[in-house]
Design a protein that fits this description.
The protein is an alpha+beta fold. The protein has helices spanning about 1-15, 70-85, 115-130, 200-210, 230-245, 245-250, 310-315, 335-340, 395-400, and strands at about 20-35, 40-55, 60-65, 105, 135-150, 155-175, 175-180, 180-190, 220-225, 270-275, 295-300, 300-305, 330, 345-350, 355, 365-370, 370-375, 380-385, 390, 400-410, 415-425. The strands form 3 sheets. Strands 9, 14, 15, 16, 17, 18, 19, 20 and 21 form a 9-stranded mixed β-sheet that branches. Strands 1, 2, 3, 4, 5, 6, 7 and 8 form an 8-stranded mixed β-sheet that branches. The termini are far apart.
Length: about 425
Amino acid sequence: MKDIAEIAIKAMREAGADKAQAIVSRAEKTELNIESGNLSLMRTTFSNSVSLVAIKDSKKGVSQLGTWDADAVKAAAGEAVGMAEAGQADDAYDIALLEEGPSDFQAGPDVPGDAFLTRVVELQKKVAKDYPKILFTSFLAFNKTEKLIANTNGVELSSTDGRYSVAFELSAKDGETVTSANYLTGECRELPDDLTELLDFGKFLDQSMSELGAKPAGEKFVGEVIFQPECLFELLQSYAGCFLEDAALIGQTSLLKDKLGQKVASNTVNLRAIPLNDDICGTFVSNDGFRVKNMEIIKNGVLESFMLTQYGANKTNQKRALCALPYFEMDAGSVTLDEMIAGTKKGLLLGGHISGGSPSENGAFSGVAKNSFLIEDGKVTRPVQETMISGNVLEIFNNVVALSEERRNNGMYVLPWLKAGGITIS
């Protein structure tokens, strides 16, 4: 990989680039698919890729290719410089500076465990036996990725990463009645003995069974919504996109653009990025050539950091984030999920996702609450379907009623259940 990176950088410099970066990677994937309860695919694939960035006269060009062939790499280097020459100048374009610290990172196994196939087959049999009304498709893969990032500032960072990726799609069918599909994804370094324990999959199976017979919620009302960790993660991604990331801050649309060091959420909200924590499958190096670090985003409701890349930081004259990737962790609360439900007069337990597109620039959203249940007088009473909810992402984190003691770790985030008030349900 180092030879390929050197060839690419040399070719970009010879073509006239002032600055250049190359990312060279090799990926190996062993994947297993189950469709309608049957093992439908088992294969191992290999791929090489090269991603190039050239900066000339403050103009940027990029090129990507799926081969390590030296002649193809040289041609792609010329294309990157050509694109830069044809582009528009922007002084914010740059590459990472050389920093002191480790340059080689490794995490996870090199090969999938011997029991990989066995456990997938056991999962297939267990679901068929214990949950005959469940329809499910699963994608499980072991991914090993080797990557090298190098640039003309002398940066040379390499990583080797092994992890399992899991995706489940499931619904329940009873006669002609079929529940709304639910989706569950995650990553891990080691597989548990029983795959129904992974990502709380067993609980999702039970939840899908409970959704049979769902009906609309009924009359419109304003109440409290308990967001399951998977949906909370979607809310946090929307929150970051609307208020903390490059586009919103460069475009001056973020309502939090002047709020660093100020209170922006309930006191109970403590949010951070944790790419280096051992209990998740994070990363060590950003795609713009920096070592990533754990960082505080919101502490006791106060905004501590934006999630800006180097380009976003240069463009806005703000600090570059130690991590601009959504490896979120939120502190647990002081009540159990059962207590959270018991304290809800009328509301919704949102167990899936909100279907309806991205929030507007100010955080307002409206969509269909999937895989959800009505809560009345402190009890989950029945499943609901075609039920709309609307609110505002910013207001949700300012109107936190409770956070659960329980948290769910899907390998990419560690999050509790969150209850917020003032949400319209119809």
